Amino acid sequence: DETPLPDEVPIDYVQRVARAKAEYGWRVVTLRKMRSQPVLAADTTLEFEGQIIGKPTDAEDARAILRRLAGNTHRVLTAVSVAFEGRIESTLSISEVRFCPLDEATIRAYVATGEPMDKAGAYAVLGIGGVFVEKVDGSVSNVIGLPLHTVADLAHVWVRAYVSQT
After folding, report:
1. pTM score, whole prediction
2. What is the C-alpha to C-alpha distance for residues 36 and 28, in angstroms, rounded to an integer?
3. Annotated active-site positions, please?
4. Contact partners, residue 116, CB within 8 Å, separation at least 6
């Protein structure tokens, strides 16, 4: 269940969801008696003014989200969790994204493309919405969808732990 809990702050939310996904994945591996292997899970959300910004519910919601982000900086939060043999390691990547100002005609034209409808924050940085991004502080791959450096660091933790057990 990816529904935010009452008064849950965005960082706690994204970490809870990623951890729950990893735990679920590990349960599936165990219940299906699959070969024991690490399960990686991640969750990404946008935070603006302390609020979680998810995927738009409809075109009007997409326009409202884009109006809020226009000319402002928001944060992209990705929690990554790995579950393996009853142990879970997690990490968090935070990137700040600065949007250029957007006029209503630009917002309407962009929403009409349909691109924002299944994207957290109502934009795709690798799509048309990338033209709205003035600056990224932090991991660009985090904004794209998965913080590769963060995942690599977490993988090194698991490799070291595995090697020390053998």
Report:
1. 0.88
2. 11
3. 43
4. 56, 62, 65, 66, 110, 122, 123, 124, 129
